[in-house]
Design a protein that fits this description.
The structure holds 2 protein chains of 2 kinds. By secondary structure, chain A is mainly alpha-helical. Chain A has 20 helices and 2 strands. By secondary structure, chain B is mainly alpha-helical. The chains are: A mainly alpha, B mainly alpha.
C-alpha cells in the first residue's frame, strides 16, 4: 500500500466522531471483557448491528476498540477473582491471581495492560507488513484453491474444537448444509426456502451469530447457574486486597520484554491459523516460556514472566487472525467471522479486493487497531485500580440486557422481524449444542464458508469437466488437501503411533 | 437410552434425512447438472452433506449406545430443575413479547414489560428492577428509536 493510501486513511480517522467511537468501543470492551461470562465474541456480535448505522470508519472504530480492549480486560477478572473474563485469559489466572494474593495485584494489572498492548501492537505490525504480500499471492488462486482453503479453515476449526472431532464434524457439516438454504449459487434454483422470501438470500449470518453467542450463552449460564458458588464469588469480590503499585520498574520491563516479543511472534502465527484463538496461543506460549525459563518453579505461583507472556499472547493473536481474514476471507476466529459479515454488509469482500478497491479502508482498519491498543494502554493504566469495581456487576443484571440487546440488534440489521426469529432459534440451538458438548465454532464457520465452498467446488468441476483430480494436481490445492487430511486424521494417526511405539519397545 | 450421545445421534440423523428428503422431493435439485456433463447440479451439495450428516449421526448414535449410560450431559439435580424452570419461563417471556410486538406493534411498552418480567424472574429487588428497566428502556428508545430512526414495525 502506498504512502498516499496511508495518509488518506489517517485523514479520515482524525475526525472526532471516529475517535469518539473508538474510545466508546474501548470502554465497552473493557467492561465486557472484565465481566466473566461475557466474551469479546458476544460483545462484537451484539454491537455489530448497531455499527451498521454508522459510517464504515465509525463502525469499525467501535468494533476494533471493543475487540482489542475486551481481550486485554479478560485479564482483569483473571487476576482479581481467578476467573478468566474471556477464554483467552485462562493462563492469566495461573500467575495473576497468585500475584494479587501476594499484594501485587496492581502490578499484575499493570503488566496485563502493558504486555497486552505490546502483543497487540506487534501482531498489528505483522498484519501491516505481511497482509499486502499475502493478498497479492492470492491473485493466483482459482476456484480449486478457494474451495480447498475453505475446507482447510473448516478442518482446522473441527480439529481445535475440543477432543471430540466427531461432534465438530457434525456441527460443521450441519452448518454447511444450512448454508444451502436460499438460491443455489450457480443455477439460482430455490432451495429449502419454505416459500419465505426472507430465505431467498439464505440464512442471515449475523443474527445466527448474535443468537448463538448472545442468547445461547445466556440460556446456558441460566441452566448451569450455581447459586452457592455465585454467592461465594460475589463475597470474594467484595474483599479488596491491597493492590500496590501498578507500573513495573525499568529493570522488570527489560527482563520481560524479549521473552514477550517471542511470545508475540508465536501468537501472531497461531492467530493466523484458522480457528486457533487466544486461548490456544496463551496456553502454548505460557507452556513454552515455562520450559525455557530460568525460574520455571515460579510459573503458576505468581510469576511476572508467566503473566506477561500470557498477556502478550492473548492480544498477539488479533493481528494474525485479521491477516487471515483480510487476505484470504477465512476467519481466524469467531470475532473475525462476524467482521466478515460486517464487511459484507458495508459492501466489501475480504481478499485481494480489500487491498486494491478498498485499500484506504484496509489501512484504516490497521490504524484503528493500533489506536485501540494505545487507548486501552493509557486508559488501562490510569484506571487499573478502579477496574475492580466492574466485577461487582452480577450475572442476572447482564442476562436481561443481553436478551433485549440481542432482540433489538437482530431486528435493527435489516428492520426485519424474521431475523429476530432466526436469532432466537440460533440461540436455542447454541444452548442445545453447549448442553450436549458440541462445539459451536464449526457450525458458524460452516454456515459462513458453506456458500464459498459450494460455489468454488462446482466452478472448479465445471472448469475441469467434472474431474476431481483437479483438487490434488494443482500445487497449492494439493498441499492444502494434504493438510486437511492430516488435520482430520491426526488423532487417528497419533493413536496408531502411540500403540505401535510400546509394541516396538517390547520387541 | 436418553443418556449420552444417543438422542443427539438420532436428531443428527433426522436432520440429514430431512435435507435429503427435501432435495429428492424437488425435481430441480438434481445431483448432476442438466446442462453440463458430469458437473454437479443444485442438489449435489445438499445430497452430499445430507448423507454425510446422516452417516455421522449414525456413528454418534452407535457411540451413544456403546457408552451404556456412562456419559450423561444432563444431571437433573434440584438446583438444575430450578434453573430449567427459570430458563423455560425466560424463553416463554421472550416468545410472548415477540408475539405481543408482532400483533400490536408496541415494541417499547413490550420491552419495558419484558425487562421487568426477566428481572423479577431473576429475583432482583423491586427498586433495582424498576430503575434498571426504566433506564434501559430509555436507552433503547433514545438510541434506536430516536437516534437511528428504527421504527420497530414487526
Amino acid at each position: 500500500m502506498s504512502a498516499e493510501v496511508w495518509i488518506s486513511a489517517l485523514q479520515t480517522l482524525m475526525q472526532p466522531s471516529v475517535l469518539l467511537f473508538l474510545l466508546a468501543g474501548v470502554l465497552i470492551g473493557t467492561v465486557i471483557g472484565a465481566l466473566p461470562g461475557l466474551s469479546a465474541t458476544m460483545g462484537v456480535a451484539i454491537m455489530t448491528p448497531i455499527t451498521f448505522w454508522f459510517s464504515p470508519a465509525d463502525g469499525f472504530a467501535m468494533l476494533m476498540g471493543l475487540w482489542n480492549a475486551a481481550i486485554f480486560a479478560g485479564g482483569i477478572s483473571a487476576i482479581l477473582v481467578n476467573t478468566p473474563g474471556t477464554p483467552a485469559s485462562i493462563t492469566q489466572t495461573f500467575d495473576g491471581y497468585a500475584l494479587y494474593k501476594q499484594g501485587k495485584g496492581g502490578l499484575a494489572l499493570g503488566i496485563n495492560v502493558i504486555f497486552s498492548a505490546i502483543g497487540g501492537l506487534f501482531s498489528i505490525l505483522c498484519l501491516i507488513l505481511f497482509a499486502n504480500p499475502i493478498a497479492r499471492f492470492t491473485v493466483t488462486f482459482g476456484p480449486t484453491e478457494y474451495f480447498m482453503l475453505a475446507l482447510f479453515g473448516l478442518s482446522m476449526m473441527v480439529a481445535v474444537s475440543g477432543e471430540d472431532i466427531l461432534k465438530g464434524l457434525i456441527v460443521g457439516a450441519a452448518g454447511i448444509l444450512l448454508s444451502c438454504v436460499g438460491l443455489d449459487p450457480i443455477l439460482s434454483v430455490k432451495r429449502f426456502t419454505l416459500g419465505q422470501t426472507s430465505l431467498l438470500a439464505g440464512i442471515s449470518f449475523i443474527p445466527v451469530m448474535i443468537g448463538m453467542f448472545g442468547i445461547g450463552e445466556v440460556l446456558y449460564q441460566m441452566y448451569s447457574r450455581r447459586r452457592k458458588q455465585e454467592a461465594e464469588e460475589m463475597e470474594a469480590r467484595k474483599v479488596n486486597l491491597k493492590l500496590g503499585k501498578v507500573l513495573p520498574t525499568a529493570k522488570e520491563m527489560r527482563q520481560l520484554t524479549p521473552r514477550c516479543l517471542v511470545a508475540a511472534a508465536v501468537a501472531t502465527v497461531i492467530g493466523a491459523i484458522p480457528a486457533a484463538g487466544g486461548d490456544i496461543a496463551s496456553i502454548i506460549c505460557w507452556g513454552n516460556s515455562k520450559k525455557t525459563s530460568k525460574h520455571p518453579e515460579e510459573y503458576g505461583n505468581g510469576s511476572l514472566e508467566g503473566l506477561a507472556v500470557s498477556s502478550t499472547a492473548n492480544n498477539g493473536v488479533i493481528g494474525g487472525a485479521m491477516t487471515t481474514m483480510m487476505t484470504l476471507g477465512i476467519p481466524g476466529d469467531a470475532v473475525t467471522a462476524i467482521l466478515i459479515g460486517s464487511l459484507t454488509m458495508y459492501g466489501m469482500q475480504p481478499g485481494i479486493k480489500m487491498f486494491t478497491e478498498n485499500a484506504v479502508f484496509s489501512a484504516q482498519i490497521m490504524i484503528l487497531m493500533v489506536l485501540a491498543n494505545l487507548i486501552f494502554l493509557v486508559l488501562g493504566l490510569a484506571t487499573a485500580k478502579m477496574s475492580a469495581k466492574v466485577l461487582n456487576v452480577s450475572q442476572p443484571t447482564v442476562w436481561t440486557a443481553v436478551c433485549i440487546l440481542c432482540i433489538v440488534g437482530s431486528f435493527a440489521l435489516n428492520n426485519n422481524f424474521f431475523d429476530v426469529i432466526v436469532m432466537l432459534l440460533a440461540g436455542f440451538l447454541g444452548f442445545l449444542l453447549k448442553l450436549y458438548a458440541f462445539p459451536n465454532g464449526p457450525f458458524i464457520l460452516g454456515l459462513l464458508l458453506g456458500g464459498m465452498m459450494e460455489s468454488n467446488l462446482r466452478r472448479a468441476l465445471v472448469m475441469s469437466h467434472g474431474s476431481y483430480a483437479t483438487f490434488v494436481t494443482r500445487p497449492i490445492s494439493g498441499i492444502l488437501f494434504a493438510i486437511v487430511v492430516l488435520t482430520l486424521f491426526w488423532p487417528l494417526i497419533k493413536k496408531v503411533w502411540t500403540r505401535k511405539a510400546p509394541a516396538t519397545e517390547e520387541k | 437410552m436418553h443418556k449420552g450421545d444417543t438422542i443427539p445421534g438420532v436428531i443428527t440423523m433426522l436432520f440429514g434425512l430431512l435435507f435429503v428428503a427435501a432435495t429428492a422431493a424437488n425435481p430441480k435439485l438434481t445431483a448432476v447438472s442438466q446442462t453440463s456433463d458430469g458437473v454437479p447440479g443444485a442438489g449435489f451439495f445438499p445430497y452430499l452433506l445430507g448423507f454425510g450428516v446422516m452417516l455421522l449421526g449414525a456413528i454418534l448414535l452407535i457411540r451413544g449406545l456403546r457408552q451404556k449410560g456412562q456419559v450423561q450431559y444432563i444431571n437433573l439435580e434440584e438446583e438444575t430443575k430450578q434453573n430449567l424452570k427459570v430458563l423455560a419461563l425466560s424463553v416463554l417471556g421472550i416468545v410472548i413479547f415477540l408475539a405481543f410486538w408482532k400483533l400490536t406493534g408496541q415494541f417499547i411498552i413490550g420491552m419495558l414489560v419484558l425487562s421487568l418480567y426477566l428481572n423479577w424472574l431473576f429475583q432482583r429487588t423491586w427498586r433495582f428492577n424498576i430503575i434498571y428497566s426504566a433506564v434501559f428502556t430509555a436507552f433503547i428508545y433514545f438510541t434506536f428509536f430516536i437516534g437511528f430512526s428504527i421504527q420497530f414495525v414487526a
